Amino acid sequence: MLFAKRLRDGVRSGEITCSIRIWQRPRVTVGKEYSMPPGHIVVDSLMGIGLSDVTPELARRSGFMGVVDFLKVAKHGAGERVFFVEFQYVAET
């Protein structure tokens, strides 16, 4: 999973533990690890949701200032399906 540069510190600190993604199809698998140096992300859950389910609170939990901020970053490419991903960051020791 890739994160905007401004979100990476929040992910690494554990402040951000979920992400809303707009994809054509799921691009992550529950239980799989994804590199994010100096550690990795482990996906805990993946759920399809509607765009109307993206509330200001959910956008903030994902590291954005609100829904408009989320859409500016997340709405790119041909994806139209919205996915809610919960994860944990595991630092390398």
Which word captures the global form? globular
Q: How much helicity do the residues have?
A: 10-25%
| Strand order in space, largest sheet | 1-4-3-2
Mean pLDDT equals 93
Structural class: alpha+beta
Largest sheet, strands/sense/barrel: 4 strands, antiparallel
Q: What portion of residues belong to β-strands?
A: 25-35%
- Number of distinct beta strands: 4
Number of helices: 3
The radius of gyration is: 13 Å
Low-pLDDT windows of residues? none
| The named CATH superfamily | Hypothetical protein
CATH architecture: Roll
Number of domains: 1
CA distance, first residue to last residue: 21 Å
Could you characterize the architecture of this molecule?
- The chain is an alpha+beta fold.
- It has a single domain, classed as Roll (Archaeosine Trna-guanine Transglycosylase, Chain: A, domain 4), CATH 2.30.130.
- 25% of the residues lie in helices and 34% in strands.
- The protein contains three helices and four strands, in the order H-E-E-E-H-H-E.
- The chain has a four-stranded antiparallel beta sheet.
- The longest helix is centred in the N-terminal third of the chain and has 9 residues.
- The chain is globular, with a radius of gyration of 13 Å.
- It starts with a helix and ends with a strand.
- The mean pLDDT is 93.
What labels would you give this structure?
93 residues, alpha+beta, Archaeosine Trna-guanine Transglycosylase, Chain: A, domain 4, four-stranded antiparallel sheet
